[in-house]
Design goal:
The chain is an alpha+beta fold. The chain has a single domain, classed as Gcn5-related N-acetyltransferase (GNAT) (Aminopeptidase, 3-Layer(aba) Sandwich), CATH 3.40.630. It is 31% helix and 33% strand. It contains five helices and seven strands, in the order βααβββαβαββα. Helix 1 crosses helix 2. It is globular, with a radius of gyration of 15 Å. It starts with a strand and ends in an 11-residue tail after the last helix. The structure holds coenzyme A. Coenzyme A binds next to strand 4, helix 3, strand 5 and helix 4.
Length: 163
């Protein structure tokens, strides 16, 4: 676990770095690539909530979400390859869960490719449960849901700056 990790709402100044990271990680075939202008568009819209994970001030990961049909729909989460397995992905998703809680959104939702074991483990370990399996896209994907209040029972509220 890293000690100087901060997760916070992404700023316009960070759009370029988020796009760069998305381009790097998209080569692995698990997420889509965002151009700087796409990221800017998300940051300018109240429909989206984008956060970055910073290690010693450097953006090493991000998560994107949108408000959709009473759910917080997690669109993407990505961590720089050499920074994985340090708890950064988990911290990003926990931040989104707390954001949903603050906004009184009762459920978080994410679609994950069936072959994406790291992401499936990440979400299920945070309490997300499978509701849908679809084979409509190549290889299939799972729809994973988290009921927010249930997940937070007995969960100690973290320090604001960290989450
Ligand atoms: C999925 C991803 C965001 C996880 O980020 P991360 O910072 O490495 O994740 P964490 O260190 O917080 O790990 C949290 C849990 O996820 C699971 N996990 C993460 N990487 C894993 C791996 N390579 N294999 C199996 N499980 C893994 C584990 O359960 C882990 O908990 P543990 O370390 O206590 O066992 C990262 O692998 C990534 O960027 N992948 C490419 C993009 C992607 O697939 N995004 C998801 C699209 S929906």
């Amino acid at each position: 676990m890293v000690t100087d990790l901060k997760v916070q709402k992404a700023t316009r100044e960070e759009a370029l770095r988020v796009a760069e990271l998305s381009s790097e990680v998209a080569k692995e075939g698990t997420i889509r690539e965002f151009k700087p202008e796409d990221v800017m568009e998300l940051l300018s819209s109240e429909q989206y909530y984008v956060v970055v994970a910073k290690l010693s001030g450097e953006v090493v990961g991000y998560a994107m979400s949108t408000y959709s049909w009473g759910k917080l729909h997690i669109l993407d989460v990505a961590v720089e390859k050499r920074r994985r397995r340090m708890g950064i992905g988990k911290t990003l998703i926990q931040h989104l869960i707390h954001h949903a809680l603050e906004k009184s959104i009762p459920e978080a939702y994410c679609e994950v490719k069936a072959r994406n074991i790291p992401a499936l483990n990440l979400f299920t370990r945070l309490g997300f449960r499978f509701k849908i399996f679809s084979t409509l896209v190549a290889g299939g994907f799972y729809g994973l849901y988290l009921s927010i209040p249930e997940s937070l029972r007995g969960f100690k509220r973290p320090v604001a700056e960290e989450f």
